[in-house]
Structures are given as structure tokens and as C-alpha cells.
Design a protein that fits this description.
heterodimer, A: mainly alpha, two-stranded antiparallel ribbon, B: about 900 residues, alpha+beta, 6-stranded mixed barrel
Chain lengths: ~110, ~900
């Protein structure tokens, strides 16, 4: 994936949540973190779609995790942010910082 | 504590198998357990369901598409492909419009017919467990009658444990309203068990109790929702109010829900049938419709068995009434209601399926041609690294996009046509009121479109991407050079279209011929040119017998004064519109002692003018005259069929007949008239006995007070119809009248459905012919373009333009002839199958074949003509010097 693309808002949030969770990032835990920080129910389907998208862009790698009893034997799909993923976040933040330059006063709440 | 099964199923179906699916299900499970503890299981299950739907739409669908077309690595890529598909459709608007139109025709027609089939045949009746509701018939001497007599009804209601409830229904037209304003409303007189059979109950108030369904009980009525609103403003207000029916006061005890119908949406009220259990009508007087509900603990088969048992018992118990065994049968109410509309609808469905194939393969031909046109472009993309799969996917998606567009337009067409059909009642099918383009039909139409696009787009896409890049590059990169394989494929497509068009045209022309033969069938009478005015006084206003006789004599005299009136008469039952009373009679020359062995005939009470006004001609003797008055010698007229049945080989004139019972007076037969096909050209003419209305009170039980006036006019009857009606209204104030129709309407109405089928089939076959011709044109002009160099060379070598044109023409005709022959064979085989069910002409009808085959070949020749002409005018220098 040579083409560098910007992250969608949800994609960015998913990547950040996965980083926050370190080794414990999977669908349900990411959703919990997002719900907590945004204070609303993030649509589950969109999060899964975003994970799929991020994986196909190479920003995430997925592997099967443990199948706890509460999941009726179904494995978790553990999420790890790749180096490209980190680069993408940095790029997005960099662009954002540049765009924010000089606007600090107006954006202060 | 488990998630809803259906939601899990949705996820299992929508998500790709493997880790993704398992992990998402696991995540949900985890949260579900948590939420169940927090908000309760019910709420958690609802939450799970909504999550599942969201995931299926947002994550499942894109993942599925990626799985089916793996080369579409990313969602964005799908969108990109979709966008470029749209772009390439936009780049060739002519192609897009043509293909979309062709597909929209096929899809629109199919959706239209499907909505009819769905509404009439597929949808269950609007009653709970409607597949347990049956109608009863009796069968004797191989003849089936959908009626039972009062004693038979009592036997059925009592002796059949398999039935949970049995109800009887009789149609009546009751005069509703006050002394000054009376109208006749269609009503059902039913037994108290009626709502139990249908599984329905009134919206307001209550239904009548068994003790109200008895002779002498207080008069009560249940109104339809519409009628209650019309009379009392609000349905709920109607209950406990009084309405006047037949100038007697009835208490409204209930109102049925809006939209409730049984048998006819026109029924406005239900009154108790009030059968008399002590002195019922005769066992041979079968006039009640009977319906029943099979109990939940029982089955249709068990009921059939019990019916057979009852039939045997009754045959043994009543030899006087059943000299030959009687058999009670039942069939599902829906089957009965749909009746013979089934065959017509299925035939239309078959035909429209053929049309869809023609339009689909026609579009496939266009896709293929367009693909070849773009081959150079595609080869470049392929050289730049696009995989074959990717290109194939795009071509395929393009055809699906176009089909989706066509589906949307087709739905619009279907919506318009169906609305029109239902509004004008263009076809007399039962349950037409349930027909419409709703979500279900729309879904069908769109799915049909997508499947059509996918099926007919796939082969061309495969075909187009099959050619190697080299072959395109070495051929000079010219577009429009078809590979041999592609050409063969296109020819096969077009041949198939011609074959299907042949089948459709053959079917349409056979149906048309069949319809013409029905239409030209002599009905035995000719009401066209007459106005029919049903006069339906109440017994209070115009009592039967002598007052009724005087009443109609006065009405006829007043009408005869009108300058536009040529002749006027009246009769009890109007052929083609009313049923008829079939009663037992006795003849002097061959007396029988048992009622059951007596011959029966349809009875018609008629005034002297009736025969002239209805153009019912006398074959022997005379019709009635004004001399045949109440006090004159009693006379009768018989139909030719009755004369042949009662006095075979002898002269009917001078014979004597009488009604049962035995003390009825004898009537002398003074005339024989033509047989009348009372139920239309498809049915046989019943045997009839005509009794002078003026003498009915002596010889024919009574002189009825409700007759229909038949007024023959000198000009167009519809012009004076209103005027004639107001003459009657002025002469008989407060007497309700039925709908005034012209005889032409009656005759036209009988063949309504056949006409509709023929019109639709003709339209389908014309469209198929047109598409077939377009297909031939496409193939041949393509071939000419592809062979420009070769043809140019031949011209340069000295071939005349005639030779060139002939060559091209024969190529087109070859495809046409092969297709047409195949279609002809298949069509005739099909027609032979249908012959007995629907055709009234020979399946191997030479005229149909003689019209269809030349028409087709002419169309093919015309379609080939243009490219042939172009080939003949080819300028060899240009053809050889330039790349086309």
C-alpha cells in the first residue's frame, strides 16, 4: 500500500482505541472504549467495517485470540496497530496541527 | 438467556465464514450477557436484534461482496468500479438508454403480471387460517353444483365433526331507505355461524346470536363499515340504530371492520338467513352457498372422508330425492374464488416470462456488441495491469447497474399499469381489490432486475474478456471486430429471441382466433342496441301478481311512447347478467310420479315484448302476445333444447306442461324459440321454459314484481339510457332500480377476461417481435461492419451490389428461419398442450401459422434490409483504404 490516504474520523478513533488497549484490543473492547469516551452508542457495524477497512489498508493486523466461556467458544479477533497504522495517525495529526496553526485563540473553549 | 435465533441467523448469513464472523458473534455474546444483567433479557434481546441488523448492513454486506469478487480488494475499490461503471454508462448514453428501455419493458411487463398473480393466486385470503376454509358442492350424474338445499345444509352442519363450523349464504338485493328514497343494496343473508367459519368478528357491536337467526325473531342487521359511515357518519354510531330494509325496520347490532369482504366487496349488510328447521324447503331445492371451517384437531382429508360417508347415508335415506347417488364435495375457498382465472393468469405469466427472456437476451446482445466495441480500450487497461477478473467484474457490474435502472423504470411501468387495471377493472378476475404494487411486488421487481442483469450480463462479460490482448493489438486495435466465438454466441442469442417471439406470436394469434370464434358465437339472442333497466320494487310498493302485471304493462306503454324506442319488453332474468331459477316440471305425454325423476328447466317470466326486444327469434309457432292475458288460456314457450329433450322426434307445439306440484294447471306450448347461451359463449345453453308474466300467478307460481325492462332503441342506446331511466323513475316514484346497462356492455363484459388476456398477449408478442427484429439488425449490421474489408475486396474484384446485398440478406434470413422453425415447433407443441384448457380453435390452426411465420420473416428481412443496403453501397476504395 504505497498510496498514503487520510484516515476517516471513525478509523482514527478505532486506531487510537486499539493503541489505548495495548494487547487487549478486540471488537468488543474497542467498542467499550469508544462508547465511554464519546458518551454515545457508536454503531457496532460501522466499527467492524472500519476494522475490516483498516486491515485491508494494512493499518491493522488481526489474529485469533482466546475463546472465553462467556463467548460460547467463539474466539476474539485481536487487533494490533501496525507501523503503517502509526504512520497514518501521525500524518493525520500532522496535517491537523498545521491546519490548526494560528487558530488556537478561536478554538479555545 | 440466549440471543434471538433469527438475529444470529442474519449474522451467520451476512458475514463471511471464519474469524470475522466468529469473533463478532463472540463480542455480541459477551455484551449480551452484560446487558441482560443490566437491562433485562427482553431489552437485551431487542438490542441484540438491532445490532445484528446494523452489522449485517454495515459490515456484512461489503465483506460479502469482497468475498464474491475477491479481486475487489477494498470497499473503495468496489465503489470505484461502481463509479467507473456509471461513468462508462454515461459515456455511451445511446447504448445505456436503449439497453435500459429494452430491459425495463421486460421487467415492467413481468412485474405487472406478477402483481396480478401474487394478488389473485398466491396471497392467502384475508381470514385467519384461511387454508382451513372450504366451500361445499354437490355432485350428481357427473354434474357439480356449488349449492346445497336447506335439509342438506342441516345435515352437513350436524353430521360432520371434522368441521368446526358450517355456514350458509344467500345473496339478496334489499331495498334500503325511507319511503321517498329507496335503493337496492347487495346483501348476504347468512347463518349465525358465518363469523366463526371465517374467523372474524364485528368492529363495533356484535354479531347475531343463534336465536336471532330464526324465523320470527326480531329483525337485526350487521352493516359493512362503509355503509355504516355513509348512513350514520361514524361506524360506532350505527350500533343500536334502526335502518329500513324492504320497508321493514331492522336494528343495527354490529358493524364489520373496514376492508372486510366476503365473495364481493360490494356487499353492504348481513342479515340472519333465518332458516326454518321445522318446515324447510325441499331437499331438491339447492340454492344455498355453504362454507365451512375445518377444525384445528382435524384435517381436510378427514373431512373429505366424513363427507363421503354422509353422501352414502343420505343417498340411502332419501331415494325419492336421490334416485342416482349424491356426492358432497368440498374445496378450498380460495381455489373456488380464483376459479378459472388461474389458467389465464398462469398463461400470462408464462408468456411474460418468454418476453423477459427475449428482452434479457436482447440486452445481452447489446452488452456483447458494446464489449467488442471497447475491446481496444479494455486491452490497454489489461496491459496496464488490470486483471481479467477486475475487468470482468466491471463489465458485469455495468450490466447490473443498467438492469437496476431498468428495474426502477420497470417498477414505475408496473405501478402505472396495475393501478390502471385495478381502477378501470380492466379484467374481471376475482380478488382484483387485493392486487397492487406493494413492497413485496417491488422487491420482486428489483430482484428480478438484478438477477436478469447478472445472468444476461455475465456471459457477455466473460466473452468480452476472453480474447487475448495480442489478438486485439495485432488486429490493428480496431474496435468492432468480433471474434468468431462471439459472433456465434450473438447469432445463437438472436436465434433464441426469434424462436421465443415465434412462440409468443403463435400463442397470441391462437388466443386471438379463439377469442374471435367466441365473439362470433351466436348467443341465440342479441341484446346489443337495447337498454336494460332492472326494476326492483318492494312487496309493499308493488305487490306481486295482478298489481305487478298492471305495473309493467303501464311502464312498457310509457316507454313505448318515447320516439327513440323501437320495442320494449320485460323479463325476470336477463341472460348474461342474472342466473336463472331451475325448477322441476311435468309433461302430459310422459308423466312421472317422483319429483326427483321429473325433468327440470330454467324458468323465465316474460312479457310479450321481451322476445322482440331481446332479438330472441321464434323457430316454430309464435311468441307471447297481448292476447295471452291473465284470464286467457294458459300458454308457454319452450327453448329448442327443451323441445328436443322433452319431445324428441315429435312436435312440441300443442304439448302440455305444468309446474310441480301436481295441482298446477297445464300450459299449452305455443312456440319454440332459439337456445340462449345465458352464461356466455363458452357455456352451453340451458333448457328454458317461458311463462307469460301476466299468467304467472296461475301457471308459474307467481307473477314476480321485480323484472328487468329491455328497451330496444333506434339509435345508440347509451344516448337515451338516462332519459329512459327517468321515465321509469317518474312513472314509479320510490321504486328502486338497479344499475342501467346497455346490452352491448353485457355482451362485452362476458368476454372481458378473454379480451384482456388477448390484448396483453398481443402486446407482449409485438414487443418480442420488435426486439427480435432489433436483435437481427444488430447482429447483421455488426457482421457487415466487421467484414467491411472483405466486402470491399469482393466489390473491387467485381461482385455486383446485388450479389453483396443478397449475401447479407440470406445471412439474416438464415438466423430468422432457424429461430422461427424452432419456435414454431415448440409453440405448436405448447399449443397442443393448451388446446383443451384454453383454446376454442384447433391448435394447428393454419391461419395462425400462415400469419405468424410470414410476419416474422418479413420483420427479419426488414431488419436485415438496412445493413444489406449499406453493404451494397460500399465504396471499395474507402473500405480498403480506411479503418472503419
Amino acid at each position: 500500500m504505497t498510496k498514503r490516504s487520510f484516515l476517516g474520523e471513525l478509523e482514527e478513533l478505532v486506531l487510537l482505541a486499539a493503541l489505548q488497549l495495548e494487547g487487549d484490543a478486540y471488537g468488543a473492547s474497542i467498542l467499550r472504549v469508544l462508547d465511554q469516551h464519546t458518551g454515545r452508542d457508536v454503531p457496532r457495524g460501522s466499527v467492524y467495517a472500519a476494522i475490516d477497512r483498516l486491515e485491508s489498508k494494512g493499518y491493522l493486523s488481526l489474529h485469533a485470540g482466546e475463546a472465553t466461556p462467556g463467548r460460547r467458544g467463539r474466539p476474539r479477533r485481536m487487533v494490533i496497530v501496525t507501523q503503517q497504522g502509526l504512520d497514518a495517525i501521525r500524518l493525520t495529526h500532522h496535517v491537523r496541527d498545521q491546519l490548526r496553526a494560528g487558530l488556537e485563540a478561536r478554538l479555545q473553549s | 438467556m440466549t440471543p434471538p435465533r433469527w438475529a444470529e441467523w442474519i449474522l451467520e448469513v451476512s458475514l463471511p465464514r471464519g474469524l470475522t464472523r466468529d469473533s463478532i458473534l463472540g463480542d455480541l455474546e459477551e455484551d449480551f450477557a452484560e446487558r441482560s444483567a443490566e437491562i433485562g433479557e427482553g431489552a437485551a434481546r431487542r438490542w441484540y436484534g438491532s445490532q445484528a441488523i446494523g452489522i449485517a448492513l454495515r459490515a456484512g454486506l461489503p465483506a460479502r461482496i469482497r468475498q464474491i469478487v475477491p479481486s475487489f480488494g477494498q470497499t473503495t475499490m468496489i465503489l470505484e468500479t461502481f463509479r467507473s461503471a456509471l461513468k462508462s454508462v454515461r459515456r455511451a448514453p445511446g447504448f445505456a438508454v436503449l439497453t435500459t428501455t429494452i430491459l425495463a419493458l421486460g421487467i415492467g411487463a413481468t412485474t405487472t403480471v406478477f402483481s396480478l398473480v401474487d394478488g389473485v393466486l398466491i396471497r392467502p385470503l384475508p381470514y385467519p387460517d384461511s387454508d382451513r376454509i372450504v366451500t361445499l358442492s354437490t355432485e350428481r350424474d357427473g354434474r357439480s353444483l356449488a349449492r346445497v338445499s336447506e335439509p342438506e345444509f342441516a345435515d352437513l352442519a350436524r353430521d360432520l365433526p371434522a368441521y368446526e363450523a358450517v355456514a350458509a349464504v344467500e345473496w339478496r338485493h334489499l331495498a334500503l331507505g325511507s319511503a321517498t328514497e329507496l335503493e337496492r343494496i347487495p346483501t348476504h343473508a347468512v347463518t349465525a355461524s358465518f363469523p366463526r367459519v371465517l374467523g372474524i368478528s364485528p368492529e363495533h357491536g356484535r354479531w347475531f346470536a343463534p336465536d336471532e337467526d330464526a324465523p320470527g325473531a326480531p329483525l337485526v342487521v350487521v352493516l359493512s363499515h362503509g355503509t355504516a359511515v355513509r348512513l350514520f357518519g361514524q361506524a360506532a354510531d350505527a350500533v343500536t340504530r334502526e335502518v329500513s330494509l324492504e320497508e321493514e325496520s331492522y336494528t343495527v347490532i354490529g358493524v364489520m371492520p373496514a376492508g372486510f369482504t366476503f365473495r364481493s366487496p360490494d356487499i353492504q349488510a348481513w342479515i340472519p338467513l333465518a332458516l326454518d328447521p321445522v318446515t324447510p324447503f325441499g331437499r331438491n331445492n339447492q340454492y344455498l352457498e355453504a362454507i365451512a371451517r375445518v377444525g384445528t384437531g382435524s384435517s381436510i382429508d378427514a373431512a373429505t372422508e366424513q363427507l363421503d360417508g354422509l353422501s352414502a347415508t343420505l343417498t340411502r335415506a332419501h331415494p325419492d330425492f336421490y334416485p342416482t347417488p349424491i356426492r358432497f364435495t368440498h374445496e378450498l375457498l380460495k381455489t373456488r374464488l380464483v376459479g378459472d382465472a388461474r389458467a389465464a393468469l398462469l398463461m400470462l405469466l408464462g408468456a411474460v416470462g418468454g418476453l423477459l427472456l427475449v428482452s434479457g437476451s436482447n440486452a445481452a446482445g447489446l452488452f456483447l456488441a458494446r464489449g467488442e466495441h471497447r475491446k481496444a480500450d479494455l486491452a490497454v487497461r489489461s496491459a496496464l495491469g488490470a486483471s481479467r477478473r477486475r475487468i470482468l467484474g466491471q463489465l458485469w457490474l455495468e450490466s447490473v447497474v443498467i438492469a437496476g435502472l431498468a428495474g426502477t423504470i420497470g417498477l414505475g411501468i408496473a405501478q402505472a399499469v396495475v393501478t390502471w387495471i385495478v381502477r378501470v377493472g380492466a379484467v374481471s378476475v376475482p380478488r382484483l381489490e387485493t392486487v397492487g404494487v406493494d413492497a413485496r411486488v417491488a422487491l420482486f421487481g428489483l430482484l428480478l432486475a438484478i438477477v436478469t442483469g447478472a445472468v444476461f450480463g455475465l456471459l457477455p462479460a466473460v466473452q468480452t474478456t476472453r480474447t487475448s490482448i495480442q489478438s486485439v493489438i495485432t488486429s490493428g486495435g480496431r474496435g468492432g471486430v468480433g471474434s468468431r466465438r462471439a459472433n456465434r454466441f450473438r447469432r445463437a442469442l438472436v436465434g433464441g429471441q426469434i424462436a421465443l417471439a415465434t412462440i409468443l406470436m403463435l400463442g397470441a394469434s391462437l388466443m386471438l382466433r379463439s377469442f374471435e370464434s367466441l365473439r362470433s358465437t351466436d348467443l341465440g339472442f342479441d341484446p346489443s342496441g337495447a337498454v336494460i333497466i332492472p326494476v326492483q320494487p318492494t312487496e309493499v310498493r308493488v305487490p306481486r301478481n295482478a298489481p305487478a302485471v298492471a305495473f309493467y304493462q303501464r311502464l312498457e306503454a310509457r316507454l313505448a311512447d318515447h320516439p327513440a324506442v323501437a320495442s320494449v319488453g320485460a323479463a325476470r332474468r336477463v341472460p348474461l347478467r342474472d342466473g336463472h331459477d331451475r325448477l322441476s316440471i311435468q309433461i302430459e305425454s310422459n308423466p312421472v310420479s317422483l319429483l326427483a325423476e321429473a325433468p327440470a328447466a330454467g324458468i323465465q317470466w316474460a312479457t310479450p315484448g321481451y322476445f322482440e326486444a331481446a332479438r330472441l327469434s321464434t323457430t316454430r309457432g309464435r311468441a307471447f302476445s297481448t292476447e295471452d292475458g291473465t284470464d286467457a288460456p294458459l300458454v308457454a314457450v319452450v327453448s329448442q333444447g327443451l323441445a328436443d329433450e322433452l319431445w324428441p322426434g315429435a312436435d312440441a307445439l300443442g304439448q302440455r306442461v305444468r309446474m310441480w306440484p301436481e295441482d298446477s294447471p297445464w300450459m299449452e306450448v305455443v312456440g319454440v324459440v332459439e337456445n340462449v347461451r345465458r352464461n356466455g359463449p363458452q357455456s352451453d345453453a340451458p333448457t328454458m321454459l317461458y311463462i307469460p308474466h301476466a299468467q304467472g300467478l296461475h301457471s308459474g307460481y307467481l307473477s314476480p314484481n321485480a323484472l328487468s325492462l329491455i328497451v330496444r332503441t333506434s339509435g345508440d342506446p347509451s344516448i337515451v339510457a338516462d332519459e329512459l331511466r327517468s321515465i321509469v323513475a317518474a312513472e314509479a316514484p320510490g321504486v328502486p332500480m338497479g344499475t342501467v346497462v346497455t346490452g352491448g356492455d353485457l355482451v362485452g363484459g362476458v368476454l372481458d377476461r378473454d379480451r384482456f388476456v388477448v390484448q396483453l398477449l398481443s402486446a407482449f408478442s409485438l414487443v418480442a417481435l420488435l426486439l427480435g427484429a432489433v436483435g437481427v439488425y444488430g447482429v447483421i449490421s455488426h457482421a457487415v461492419r466487421a467484414r467491411t474489408r472483405e466486402l470491399g475486396l469482393r466489390v473491387a474484384m467485381g461482385a455486383s451490389s446485388d450479389q453483396i446485398a443478397r449475401g447479407v440478406l440470406s445471412e439474416g434470413l438464415r438466423v430468422g428461419i432457424i429461430g422461427a422453425s424452432g419456435g414454431l415447433v415448440a409453440g405448436l407443441l405448447l399449443a397442443l398442450q393448451l388446446e383443451r384448457a384454453v383454446l376454442h380453435v384447433d391448435a394447428l390452426d393454419p391461419i395462425s401459422i400462415g400469419v405468424v411465420v410470414p410476419t416474422l420473416l418479413l420483420a427479419v428481412a426488414a431488419a436485415t434490409g438496412l445493413p444489406a443496403l449499406r453493404a451494397a453501397r460500399l465504396d471499395p476504395t474507402k473500405a480498403l483504404g480506411e479503418h472503419p
